[in-house]
């Protein structure tokens, strides 16, 4: 029986992970559920899944969580704070961790899982963008198994089963849906609303990643994520827009073969792979009927003129050091300001670019250096937001 900690349980990935877990009561059990601030949703999940521990990040939610669990007649133990979460992730109530907290807030618990050699189903791409070398080294040294569950990286993972395949690798091709604004000019995006930006054409996801998909920053973060996961340089990672979102990514080999993984756009497939790979279990996702899906697979080049975030991410990866951490932090500030209607959609790449220019990269030697870069970038990006709106 795999004992699973689901971090970000109240989110979109959390829901998909818990759906797969509930389908396999003989093999999978949710023992730890963690969320940010949504106490009611966390208690409801505890009623359904009966974990041993529930963690709410926001300290002011602790009493309500404790009371909610008691009122529901559960013996689930309530916790709050990052130290408590780290201890649970590292402890023996779980052997498998679904890392699905959104943003840099997920780094600490992701690292705690890696440090203690757990099976890590990694959705929280920001932790790899921020501290990829450190996270991969930590996992390697501790013997942790990282299974990427970001759909593109999960596809590549399935196409690269062993070191022989890796040795013959020519390039990775990440597919992108193009987001809700595919085909539009840069100027036409000036007044788009958060609702329009968050309306992803193919995937049902949290707000932050949906906006990232609309700017193509999601694909930029994924290029950096792929670099760390598969140890491939920026020059051998390409992006291809594929509006049907049925081909989840491709791997080209030196002999001219290209392998791809296809399936309906539903994260339960990638999560199922993560739980039991190399064995496959039912995920609840049906098979892919290509004719029913329209009978065609289209591909086009990304438009980096209209969507400069993709170029900024490649630049940050090539610059190295703390640049990806700065890119990530500035993007988190900018997306949040856009969602709060403090600035327009086109200001997102502007804030990221200004922050990157203000903070030249230094060697990302330690977690402290990366933490400082993240904090400085957030301050500078916030100033840029204020400057843009005044
Ligand atoms: N959704 C998807 O299909 C995909 C998502 N991903 C990645 O997975 C991650 C999660 O995405 P998604 O599920 O869409 O996001 P959601 O916004 O739907 O969910 C985010 C989750 O993180 C929790 N959370 C936020 N801040 C904290 C914190 N400080 N401590 C603990 N928990 C916190 C939220 O809790 P609360 O509800 O209480 O606020 C919620 O459970 C992101 O990194 C995203 O890029 C990758 C590929 C696909
Ligand atoms: C489901 C998933 O993995 C997302 O990251 C998805 O890829 C977003 O779609 P875009 O291709 O539009 O960024
Ligand atoms: Mn993805």
TrEMBL record:
Residue sites binding Mn(2+) per the record: 150, 152, 222
Domain named 1-deoxy-D-xylulose 5-phosphate reductoisomerase N-terminal: residues: 4-132
Needed cofactors: Mg(2+); Mn(2+)
Domain DXP reductoisomerase C-terminal residue range list: 262-379
Residue ranges of every copy of the 1-deoxy-D-xylulose 5-phosphate reductoisomerase C-terminal domain listed in the record: 146-230
EC number assigned by the record: 1.1.1.267
The name this protein goes by in its record: 1-deoxy-D-xylulose 5-phosphate reductoisomerase
InterPro entries: DXP_reductoisomerase, DXP_reductoisomerase_C, DXP_reductoisomerase_N, DXPR_C, DXPR_C_sf, NAD(P)-bd_dom_sf
Known function: Catalyzes the NADPH-dependent rearrangement and reduction of 1-deoxy-D-xylulose-5-phosphate (DXP) to 2-C-methyl-D-erythritol 4-phosphate (MEP).
Alphabetically ordered keywords of this record: Isoprene biosynthesis, Magnesium, Manganese, Metal-binding, NADP, Oxidoreductase
Recorded family membership: Belongs to the DXR family.
GO-annotated biological processes: isopentenyl diphosphate biosynthetic process, methylerythritol 4-phosphate pathway involved in terpenoid biosynthetic process
Gene Ontology molecular function, alphabetical: 1-deoxy-D-xylulose-5-phosphate reductoisomerase activity; manganese ion binding; NADPH binding
Pathway: Isoprenoid biosynthesis; isopentenyl diphosphate biosynthesis via DXP pathway; isopentenyl diphosphate from 1-deoxy-D-xylulose 5-phosphate: step 1/6
């Amino acid at each position: 029986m795999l004992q699973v900690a689901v971090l970000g349980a109240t989110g979109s990935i959390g829901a998909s992970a818990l759906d797969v877990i509930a389908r396999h009561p003989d093999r999978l059990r949710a023992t730890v559920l963690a969320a940010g601030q949504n106490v009611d949703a966390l208690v409801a999940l505890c009623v359904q899944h009966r974990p041993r521990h529930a963690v709410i990040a926001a300290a002011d939610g602790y009493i309500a969580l404790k009371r909610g669990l008691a009122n529901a007649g559960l013996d689930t133990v309530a916790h709050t704070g990052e130290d408590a979460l780290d201890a649970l992730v590292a402890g023996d109530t779980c052997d498998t961790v679904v890392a699905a907290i959104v943003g840099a807030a997920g780094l600490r618990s992701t690292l705690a899982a890696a440090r203690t050699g757990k099976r890590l189903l990694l959705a929280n791409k920001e932790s790899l963008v921020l501290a990829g070398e450190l996270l991969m080294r930590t996992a390697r040294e501790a013997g942790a198994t990282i299974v990427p569950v970001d759909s593109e990286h999960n596809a590549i993972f399935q196409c690269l089963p062993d070191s022989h395949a890796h040795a013959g690798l020519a390039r990775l091709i990440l597919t992108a849906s193009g987001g809700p604004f595919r085909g539009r000019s840069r100027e036409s995006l000036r007044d788009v609303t958060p609702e329009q930006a968050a309306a992803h054409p193919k995937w049902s996801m949290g707000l932050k990643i949906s906006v990232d998909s609309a700017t193509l920053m999601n694909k930029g973060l994924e290029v950096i994520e792929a670099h760390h996961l598969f140890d491939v340089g920026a020059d051998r990672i390409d992006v291809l827009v594929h509006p049907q979102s049925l081909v989840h990514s491709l791997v080209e080999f030196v002999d001219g073969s290209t392998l791809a993984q296809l399936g309906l756009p539903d994260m339960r497939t990638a999560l199922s792979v993560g739980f039991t790979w190399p064995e496959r279990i039912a995920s609840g996702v049906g098979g892919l009927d290509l004719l029913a899906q329209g009978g065609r697979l289209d591909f086009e080049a990304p438009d980096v003129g209209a969507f400069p975030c993709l170029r900024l991410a490649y630049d940050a990866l090539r610059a190295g050091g703390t640049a990806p951490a700065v890119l990530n932090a500035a993007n988190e500030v900018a997306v949040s300001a856009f969602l709060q209607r403090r600035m327009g959609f086109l200001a997102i790449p502007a804030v990221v670019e200004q922050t990157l220019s203000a903070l030249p990269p230094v060697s990302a030697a330690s977690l402290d250096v990366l933490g400082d870069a993240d904090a400085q970038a957030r301050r500078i990006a916030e100033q840029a937001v204020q400057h843009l709106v005044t």
